[in-house]
Design goal:
Layout lengths: L2 H13 L2 H8 L6 H11 L1 E3 L14 E3 L2 E3 L3 E3 L12 H11 L4 E3 L7 H11 L5 E5 L5 H14 L3 E5 L9 H6 L35 H10 L4 E6 L2 H9 L4 E4 L13 H12 L5 E4 L5 H9 L4 E4 L1 H32 L13 E3 L5
Parallel strand pairs: 4-11, 5-6, 6-7, 7-8, 8-9, 9-10, 10-11
Antiparallel strand pairs: 1-12, 2-3
Helix pairs in contact: 1-12, 4-5, 4-12, 5-6, 9-10, 11-12
The structure holds flavin mononucleotide (FMN) and ligand LXCWX6NK.
Flavin mononucleotide binds next to loops.
Amino acid sequence: MSPGLSDLHDRARALLDPVHYDYFAGGAADEVVLGENERAFGRLALLPRILRGTPVRDLAVALPGARASMPVVVAPTAFHRLAHPDGELATARATAAAGTVLVSSMASTVAVGAVVAAARSVDPAAAVWFQLYLQPDPEVTRCLVRRAEDAGCTALVVTADSPVFGRRERDVRNGFDDLPEGFAAENMRDLPGGPPGGTRDIEMSAALSWEDLDRVRASTALPVLLKGVLHPEDARLAVDRGLDGVVVSNHGGRQFDAVPAALDALPRVAAAVDGAIPVLLDGGVRRGSDVALALALGATAVGVGRPVLWGLAADGEQGVRQVLDLLRDEFDHALALCGGRDLADLTRDLVVTRGTPW
Ligand SMILES: Cc1cc2nc3c(=O)[nH]c(=O)nc-3n(C[C@H](O)[C@H](O)[C@H](O)COP(=O)(O)O)c2cc1C
Ligand SMILES: CCCCCCC(=O)C(=O)O
């Protein structure tokens, strides 16, 4: 982690309620995957090309429903008002100012309409995607999709890695199982079957299937991406079923502590997709060189989760700006040192395993 990010992390830890810090920082069970996500980047090295660069590099990338100024988007994370009173509004403004995409969590503490409005107050063309957990009651899912459409979101990201909620032992130890008084998952307010004026719980369901996802695909004209893909066969199914992108992700090590690091799962997923749709990756991205490695292994862009929360907790909108600016500068620097002019120059032949002659 760069000194800039680790400083923000230290400040965030000092400012946050320790129970909320643990919720943000923690992972499932022994937190093996949490650490592996970061260590996986350290096991690989980049093999630069020389004498083929340019002084000004093009970092922009076309994504479903968005053109981003760099291949780094803000991954969906819940409950930003626990990190800072401005919550998701601050994150949305900072992300729009950085010219990239905010994936707004269904478990946001600000309703999606206000999140999009905050982003568009900075840049009228700002792209916000809506992250969705399919709900067992299809009518609730339909309402959430409509809310995202009405808010002006430009894509949906369906998270499918949570048939049940991960065992997060820090949260169990801390007794953190509900939001404090005065905070709510605002997108869940006034939904069918919920209390009038109140919020419904977000439900995880092991009964959901590809057919439920097909129904969402058929119900909207928005691009639909699938998040939580690790098995190449699931990536192939996503292509076959007309999805618009996949996100290789183990939920930041928060769901199942027996899965591979996200980066280690990427090459086979990218091979299975074979360029048919964009492949995003999140989990453990902490440096611009991590972004370059992921792109060289087949990612179209990466998502960052916790670093954004540390920036938000440390310094609100400014802190999130700092995180995104830092990653952009570092990535641009890494691209220059690889002899790259644009993202297409980050190819598989640049990646070697550290510690073994190649
Ligand atoms: C505090 C926290 C809350 C999260 N909430 C969500 C969520 O609401 N929906 C979702 O799909 N993923 C959620 N995630 C997972 C992130 O989208 C992403 O996969 C993960 O944070 C990436 O790893 P990183 O934190 O190492 O960058 C959450 C992650 C964290 C740390
Ligand atoms: C049942 C509450 C759902 C909140 C989801 C947030 C999340 O995905 C996380 O990793 O935490």
